[in-house]
Write a structure and sequence with these properties.
It holds the Pfam family MarR_2. The two termini are 26 Å apart. Strands 4-5-6 form a three-stranded antiparallel sheet, with no helix packed on it. It is built from eight helices and seven strands. Helices cover 46% and strands 11% of the residues. The protein is mainly α. A hairpin with a 4-residue loop joins strand 5 and strand 6. The protein has two domains: 102 residues, Orthogonal Bundle (Arc Repressor Mutant, subunit A), CATH 1.10.10.10; 59 residues, no CATH class. Bound molecules: iron/sulfur cluster. The site of iron/sulfur cluster (SF4) has 13 residues, from loops.
Length: 199
Amino acid sequence: MSARETAELLLQVGRLVQAEGYDGELSPAQWMALRFFARANPFSRTPSAFAEFQATTRGTATQTIKALEAGGYLVRQRFKTDGRSVSLRLTSKGKKALARDPFEVLVRAVDSLDATARTAMRRALHQVLCTLATSDARRQIGVCQDCMHFGREMSGKLPSTGPSAVECLLLGVPIQPEDIGLLCVHFQPVNEHREDEHE
Ligand code: SF4
């Protein structure tokens, strides 16, 4: 199969999932925002991080977020340390809506592949994404496990951290275990060898 045929298949998958997104209470962009804020770590629950993730303008991202706030799906909180910054989170209505997310159709389709095919697919798509992000000079958004700033040596640095605590070497803060698999706007990819450790 040629590279063009494979790329067209990717496009078709995207189109089909996008079309599924119109069959519900929210637009595809609004579903994307709900998914993002459900999966974003504490440093990334902001309109600008969502704009980066969606590869769109801050204005477009803000409109999507405002519609979700008006509909009662998202709420914003001011950071205590910075009155200008906000943190967005899902309300219980947002969480209930996400349980009906049309994107799940794609999750189930991927889940129906065997483990070897899923691993190969993840690796290949990750590589394609890295290439696109590099050539387009866009920031990639990923999780701590795949990030070059992910450190494991925090014991003793802070009184609140235990022997198995992990640290963000970029931000110099401990990473809570429940946040390790969440999306981060400060993410920088490591090379593929490190990724293999987490399959
Ligand atoms: S390790 Fe990377 S992904 Fe995790 S919080 Fe730090 S910058 Fe973000």
